[in-house]
Protein: Response regulator transcription factor
Organism: Arthrobacter terricola
Amino acid sequence: MSIRLVIADDQALVRGALAALLGLEPDIEVVAELGDGTGVAAAVVEHSADVAMLDVEMPGLDGISAAAAVRRAAPSCSVLMVTTFGRPGYLKRAMLAGASGFVVKDTPARQLAEAVRKVHQGLRVVDPALAAESLTAGDSPLTDREAEVLKAASDGGTVANIAKAAMLSEGTVRNYLSAAMAKTGGRTRAEAVRIAQDNGWLL
Amino acid sequence: MSIRLVIADDQALVRGALAALLGLEPDIEVVAELGDGTGVAAAVVEHSADVAMLDVEMPGLDGISAAAAVRRAAPSCSVLMVTTFGRPGYLKRAMLAGASGFVVKDTPARQLAEAVRKVHQGLRVVDPALAAESLTAGDSPLTDREAEVLKAASDGGTVANIAKAAMLSEGTVRNYLSAAMAKTGGRTRAEAVRIAQDNGWLL
DNA sequence: CACCGGTCATGACATTTGTCATCCCGCATT
DNA sequence: AATGCGGGATGACAAATGTCATGACCGGTG
């Protein structure tokens, strides 16, 4: 019996190519393709899928949240995360959300079908390079509010704007940004944002 | 006789899927796959390719420069740009560099092969939505140095660092950043960076 | 030639950031 | 009850940033 697969990726080209490629495998059947994360859990249930392949970066519901939703709605369905950027923080968060596998889009295409089969068998699949990086990188040092403020700062607004958006006093915002800069090692707010993003500490 | 195609994209997964997908077409033959832009022109010449499909964002040589290199080395080879982000500025720059087509990765997979055929016939293929956006967005208002300094600022360094990197005085850097902020409409340097990037004015 | 725009630079200035010390509160651990 | 930690806030101060006027040089263009 073939593996029933749901694919979610916001880039139609990638999604289509992936579906075509994996659909060629005799033991894999692509039962649904989604362009965002919102409908994934429902689609998994509707088609009684065995494996869900999710991109981390998606409009609507992000891949991590979507993974959690899938696990809640259909515990028998394994989740394989596929991502463009090898952000160490994503790996850990995806695992905590119940994902069984995590591969970057740099993976040779042939290994993909194999990864799908492995997670379906209940095995865990993790990109080795990324796993190593994840260990050295460690957890996010940021508290929830620090991450929140830093994320609010990520599109370049002023302290006043961030304060308004986060319902905080300007001084408090500066304190959080200062703390975030100290913890990330960045010298400016913008640098801190970049570092945190590269490590997958925001979202 | 089949169309000889060279594919360059930094994501192995995408590249492989694209190659597999297009290779299935009876009239298309994928003769080379590259992971960066540096070897594209050489590969085109070596395999006497008819069409080169290039990603804009690539390590090493970016897609725009690679397109120009291909046109120089092999004027008979058409270039089709494929990009993740629909940055209006990219479109214009790609066209100026000699590209015949420009599609985003949101394009339905089936239209891709058709796009390859069209550029091979000498036709131009442009994503309609992007073309419209490109018209309203207009050209980059930034001068070369302004863009250069803004780009140097894009990873969050201080004025002092940017000045050192660009071999300019700190005051000059501040002037350029100020001008860039005025032209982009951003209130802070970080916002100006974001706006310029979204419009494809950097690179 | 005179003019303009882009490049590079100074200096002065107002504003915004970043840093720090110091509070208060609530909550969990001990 | 005491301690520690995170959230939230204030105020003061130093450093960085953004703004503006001004001037010089150069290359193209009317």
Observations:
- The longest strand of chain A covers residues 28-34.
